[in-house]
Amino acid sequence: MTTLDAVLAHADASLDASRERLFDLLRIPSISTQPEFAGECVRAAEWVRDQLAGLGFQASVRPTAGHPVVVAHHPGPAGYKGPHVLFYGHYDVQPPEPIELWNSPPFEPQLVDGPRGKRFVARGAVDDKGQATMFIEALRAWHAVGGGIPAKLTLLIEGEEEVGSKNLEPFLIANKDELSQADVALISDTNMWNVDTPAVTTMLRGMVYTEVTLKAANRDLHSGLYGGSALNPINALTRILGQLQDDDGRIRLPGFYDRVKPISNAQRAQWDSLGFDESAFLGDIGLTAPAGERGYSALERLWARPTADINGIWGGYTGEGSKTVIAAHASAKVSFRLVSDQNPDEVYAQFQKFVNDRLPPGATAEFAVFSRGPGIEVSTDSPWIRATLDALSDEFGKPAVLMGCGGSIPVVTSLRSVLGLEALLVGFGLDDDQIHSPNEKFEQACFHRGIRSHIRLLDKLAAG
Amino acid sequence: MTTLDAVLAHADASLDASRERLFDLLRIPSISTQPEFAGECVRAAEWVRDQLAGLGFQASVRPTAGHPVVVAHHPGPAGYKGPHVLFYGHYDVQPPEPIELWNSPPFEPQLVDGPRGKRFVARGAVDDKGQATMFIEALRAWHAVGGGIPAKLTLLIEGEEEVGSKNLEPFLIANKDELSQADVALISDTNMWNVDTPAVTTMLRGMVYTEVTLKAANRDLHSGLYGGSALNPINALTRILGQLQDDDGRIRLPGFYDRVKPISNAQRAQWDSLGFDESAFLGDIGLTAPAGERGYSALERLWARPTADINGIWGGYTGEGSKTVIAAHASAKVSFRLVSDQNPDEVYAQFQKFVNDRLPPGATAEFAVFSRGPGIEVSTDSPWIRATLDALSDEFGKPAVLMGCGGSIPVVTSLRSVLGLEALLVGFGLDDDQIHSPNEKFEQACFHRGIRSHIRLLDKLAAG
To answer: Closest by alpha carbon to A127, among A90, A95, A96, A155?
Structure first.
């Protein structure tokens, strides 16, 4: 029996104990957005620290302006030549509300039977306590029977991911010398393709989230006395924003697509081979026909094409019945999901110009921007991603899928921009895990194979 | 001295007493929208009834489901051959709030000096207590020195004009036999062209006020996970409503203009001769350029052309900052001001078709309609309007202007549809009278000439 086999066998034999340790962590209601749970956040951080210290890590709970960050270092074996891996996770969770929709108390983890076998039900079961615990349990198995921690490692487990990680980037900057020693980041906070098929997420969309306000008259006007001669800013705003997309669903900001890379034939073929069921995807949300850009599949539109969505709009009278008013102003929140090399600042400027070029005489436009981050594309031919794909393929007996993600994971951008680290996004959640919703769950099979995958991945990475 | 001259001279000599009687009425806070003032509404109605009874009218305060209506009849002189005139007015007033912006208590009428001489300041000074009182004072002068009430008259003075007159039409229907005996209606609730130039309002716009809701997914969606493939109903709504007008400001509902009569050359010439100062009109509301339909003057757009205004719009996230949501639905309130022969039901159907024809796959639209009334155009060659114009021209020494009004006066529609009466709209307010606002005022000169004009008008109508 190889060392790897012994470590895997230990993990198999320890599954119940691993789950019980996860349940201990799940019992701590570390809800980051509710100030009354700040003490629980500290308790969760200390729990993580203690686990890592028990495995020989130099581990500490480090203060920030918000909830603390756990940082733990291990030098790996003597003479270690492989990459220094920084593992990122978070110990904080979303609030459980609405409580009444839970089938069991959200912070009393349950082991229940589901259609795919045992599952864990609790807030944080998968996001991200379950996923972070898998890595720690992989380390534990190595520590127990594999001769010790097999690689040079830093763990960074934060407590504010669910509230926007606003103190994380300052923390990275303040501790840059310490943290930028790593060679690559590993994050376990994403999904598999399905329960039998592992995945690495290599593309994340970025975003610019803006607000625009059109102003016209200096006060609300009576539509009878002024209608037909006074500029109506709601009409003007719909007229402008109604032109955001052309008849093919392409976004009409001049220059918007200049930095968007075409989808390669290889990429397209790989995604096509996944057999994504678009009608089931849409049917689940009550839609029958896809919207968006013509000429692309649903996965391509979600993972590799940018969007322009109006997330909110308001102006004039919005109460019951009628009021014959011409409003003085109208506003909208407009966000753009960005891909590959699109520059958020450029897109924001393009949007401002798009609106200003269409302003009717007498109107003015005011703009605000709430967030802007670029899309991320992880190189798919680094030695680390090859090691990752091999480890997953060994575990599952089939190739891992390279996925995109329509949303953004801001920490990936921070790790890249502050520490210069590429991120390997290897997660074991499923689409139906109900993260952020009542009855969040994690399949035991995913937890188990996640631990085994991390064991294999550490083996591959350590091999160089 | 003719009888007419004697009556006019009496009115001149009695001006202070006329004003004091108006002030008595103004001291009654007959605010129709505030239930605690219901008793004051009754008091105002009784005050009006008593004035008319004192002039020999058969006058009564008649109940409705809301505030009462005063109805008063007088047969006119023996052997009277002229038209039976129904005079409409209202004794209720708008609330005075915000009180702190008044320079004097709103229900303690003041006689103050203004740039055009004396003026009355109080809630209701012009709208409509001042205007209704002018007619009663004209009757009083005829009664005192003209040999009695000179025409067959019905007065209908309601108490719910400021809250939408919702009980008036039922009252007209219930009392149709009694009230439809009249030949023509006379309403004094509009404005002069300016302080030196009388006006008759002959065109009123109608309106259809609608609400449309676009629905897409069965719940709010995350814009990262669905953006680009899931229909965004706010994007769709702006895309549809953004097409309401073409580049020339013409409304694009098919068939919308089919029943809109062109403006006659005579009408256009008359309005052009008024020298309307469009830049002052717009400058007052902070605008520099007119909006709306190309090829028409501001007055033409306000008085004789239809509009499409979005009065309110809402959907998605409208709070502070950002939320990455794709809403499940989006709504707008859209109203159309109508002219001449446009049919409100047709226009509502045209709007529904306009939206439905542009619905993207997967979207549904729901509609509501809150009000619909046609535009009104009073014939300008009836004997009654000729008598009116002559009376005004005699009083002011210059022709009266035939004006339009961009808004609607619902009672005009009810008088026509229920009682079959055309309305003569002869008012003596000025644009700067601040009706519905703090420091509402009425120029004494307008009040005085209004009384004199009504005296002359009664003389003309009685003649035949």
So the answer is: A90
| SS3 state of residue A123 | coil
Q: Which pLDDT band, with edges at 50, 70 and 90, does B222 fall under?
A: confident
Among residues B33, B100, B15, B20, the alpha carbon closest in space to that of B439 is found at B100
Q: Which residue of A has its CA nearest to B239?
A: A242
Instruction: Using an 8 Å CB-CB cutoff, list chain A residues near B327.
Output: 311-312
CA distance A441 to B48: 75
Task: Note whether A323 contacts B316, CB cutoff 8 Å.
Answer: no
| Confidence (pLDDT) at B297 | 92
CB contact under 8 A, B325 and A313: no
Domains and CATH numbers, chain A: 3-204+375-462 (3.40.630.10), 206-260+306-373 (3.30.70.360)
Specify the 3-state DSSP secondary structure of B212. strand
Mean pLDDT of B376-403: 93
| A73–B contact, CB cutoff 8 A | no
Residues with Cβ within 8 Å of B222's Cβ and at least 6 positions away in sequence, in order, are A407, B324, B325, B326
Are B291 and A230 an interchain contact pair (Cβ–Cβ within 8 Å)?
A: yes
The C-alpha atoms of residue A188 and residue A427 are separated, in whole angstroms, by: 4
Q: If you compute the radius of gyration of chain B from its CA atoms, what whole number of angstroms results?
A: 25
Name B357's Cβ contacts closer than 8 Å, sequence gap at least 6: none
Taking only residues 218 to 257 of chain A, the set having a beta carbon closer than 8 angstroms to any beta carbon of chain B reads: 218-219, 221-232, 234-235, 237-245
pLDDT at B123 over 90: yes
Separation CA B337–CA A109 (nearest Å): 62
Interhelix angle A3-13/A129-145, rounded to 10 degrees, is 130
Min Cα distance A284 → chain B (Å) is 9
Q: Which of B 142-161 lie inside 8 A of A, CB atoms?
A: none
Complex ipTM, two decimals? 0.87
| B286 close to A (CB below 8 A) | yes
Q: Which two tokens stand for residue A238?
A: 């719909």
Q: Which token pair is B189?
A: 């609730």
DSSP state of A197: B
Judge whether residue A307 has pLDDT over 90.
Answer: yes
B325-326 and B221-222 beta bridge pairing: antiparallel
B207 touches A: beta carbon within 8 Å: yes
Classify residue B400 by its DSSP letter. P
Mutation target among A201, A203, A213, A229 for the B interface, most CBs of B within 10 A: A229
3-state secondary structure of B237: helix
Q: What is the DSSP string of A259-293?
A: TPPPPPHHHHHHHHTT---HHHHHHTTT-SS--S-
**% of chain B surpassing 70 pLDDT:** 100
Alpha-carbon distance of A113 to A111, in angstroms, equals 7
How far is Cα A235 from Cα A226, in angstroms, rounded to an integer?
A: 14
Count other Cβ atoms within 10 Å, centred on residue B1. Answer: 8
Beta carbons of A32 and A95 less than 8 angstroms apart: no
